[in-house]
Amino acid sequence: MDANTIQRYGDELYQALMQREAVAPLTDREPSITVDDAYRIQLRMIQHRLDAGEVVVGKKIGVTSKAVMDMLGVNQPDFGHLLSGMVFNEGEAVDSSKMIAPRAEAEVAFMLSRDLQGPGVTAADVLRATDCVLPCFEIVDSRIRDWKIKIQDTVADNASCGVFALGGTRRSPRDVDLALAGMVLEKNGEIVSTSCGASVQGSPVNAVAWLANTLGRLGIALKAGDVILSGSQSPLVPVKAGDSLVCAVGGLGSTSVRFI
Fold it and tell me: Does residue 41 lie within any of the structural domains?
């Protein structure tokens, strides 16, 4: 895909984000679009946000479960950039009117204390580089109309990033078995999902190692201080004003988020 086309789609997705108006799937309009093309579009979209004064605060990993991989016809996860304008903390309300079609995911966030540069990063390296882990919510949102996405669409759309809400309880990853830690997700007081960390690439730690190695092949390092969202352990849960969610992770505690 030529540079002008990359620029045009990146600009279009940024405008969709700003105006909260979804666009037709890129894969319908560009059947030959590749995942590499999509990452170039993603970077163009992100650059607009950086130019507007935001800064990158970390990365997210998406498409970590086999069910989602099968749905999108891929055999590996994807990634997107977390920006300062996406961050919510425990107790802060999320304004659902500022998104198009928000859906919540429950997962574990990693906060790094040292750089991770692939290739060759192992799960043990991830544990050594992690200051703490905490339960969190990612509220994904698609600028692609009706969530009719293929892998190229979601990658171009910054892995469908919306906002994320970090829990207030932090633990060392060496004090809990993240693969076996159970997760319970409640929506408006009713349980909607139960899972464990093994549903994410065998362990959330493995997902972070995958990200470090994938970025390392591109000459990009994960940096000390970065927040890494390791991938959803729950189904996508549609949310709207008035909804509240609670996520509890064995050994990590719980976090909640509410929508206005």
Answer: no
Beta-sheet pairing, 163-166 with 87-89: parallel
- Judged by DSSP in three states, 6 sits in helix
Residue 168 in tokens = 């207030």
Query: Tens digits of per-residue pLDDT, 95-140?
Result: 999 999 999 999 999 999 999 999 999 999 999 999 999 999 999 9
CATH number assigned to the domain comprising residue 251: 3.90.850.10
Residue 8: inside a domain: no
* Peptide bond preceding 25 in cis form (omega within 30 of 0): no
CA dihedral for 164, 199, 210, 238, sign (positive or negative): negative
Nearest in space to 159 (alpha carbons), one of 95, 229, 243, 96: 229
**Span 171-184, pLDDT tens digits:** 999 999 999 999 99
Q: Which domain holds residue 163?
A: 56-259
CA dihedral 105, 106, 110, 116 (to 10 degrees): -40
Residue among 167, 159, 161, 130 at smallest CA distance from 256 = 167
Are 35 and 152 in contact by the 8 Å Cβ rule? The answer is yes
Where residue 251 falls (left for φ over 0; alpha for ψ -120 to 50; beta otherwise) is left
Nearest to 143 by CA among 16, 7, 5, 35: 16
Q: Say which residues have a Cβ less than 8 Å from residue 28's Cβ, sequence separation at least 6.
A: none
Q: pTM to 2 decimals?
A: 0.95
User: Domain total for the chain?
Assistant: 1
CA distance 59 to 78: 10
